[in-house]
Write a structure and sequence with these properties.
Strands 10, 11, 12, 13, 14, 15, 16, 17, 18, 19 and 20 form an eleven-stranded mixed β-sheet that branches. The protein is 0% helix and 55% strand.
Length: 302
Amino acid sequence: MKLRFDVPNRSQPDPFIFEDGGRYYLYVTAGPGVEAYSASDPFGVWHYEGVIASIENGNAYWAPCIIKTAGKYWLYFSCDEPGTFEYLHVMSADSPLGPFGDPVRLFEYFSIDAHVVETEAGLFLWYAMDNREAENGRIGTRVYVDRLLDPVTPERKPVEQIIPTMDEEIFQRNRFGDGRDWHTIEGPFWFREGEWQYVMYSGACFQNDTYHIGYAAAKSSEPDPTKVKFVKHTKDGAFDPVMIRNEVEEGVGHHSVIKLNGQYYAVYHGRDLTPDPNDPGDRRTARICPLTVKDGVITAER
């Protein structure tokens, strides 16, 4: 189901949903800065709030997320600057819509798709970065988790948690002309339900037929996710995504999760399988889908 917006022909890639004080906010990928929407009801009409955060010389603001802790709102996103790759940054504000200031660059290497969570053990940063020396030969982007000493300071002891293991996760074959295929596991979203912890993610390239949402799970009460061993979901070792293209939409991926009245939902981006001739742009729009989460298993009700 598509979310409804008060502005036509805008895309909402990598939507991150956040509730605060009974109002809902959606933060999305954009060019000039992080864009945001707000709504009194996720199933109602979302109001476009415009660009709410940017840095000097920044470009291509990817996959924002937000958390409220230490008396402030902390907005994480990646962007590039002239001559650089995408690096994770964080900015703070006294409101979920800003104004956000005091930008801090978290890493000096390619790093994207933050999800910051707070448990009894502290703050933790889930994110994606490259591994070009993978032991299993499947080089590419993987999911890591690191402790945050405070909202702007990673401990810099990342633990690799989800790695590519199958061809359906290939982003591009022979990407560098040396015969090696490049894989992508990105867009982590961690949550806990009962005795289980889950990390959902996106795999492959959003332009590929195998672009999908998958997950890993662990039955553990350990509050420090760097110490938890997550097991990637498969069907007897074979590809078994939670969500992938179907008869009406494609490019189904990068998402966030929210629980409303006891029901879990994935808020994700996708493209209509039949393009709208009046909308020739990015075409990735925000959509919502119920999830069943039980005993270490996630299924989508599309």
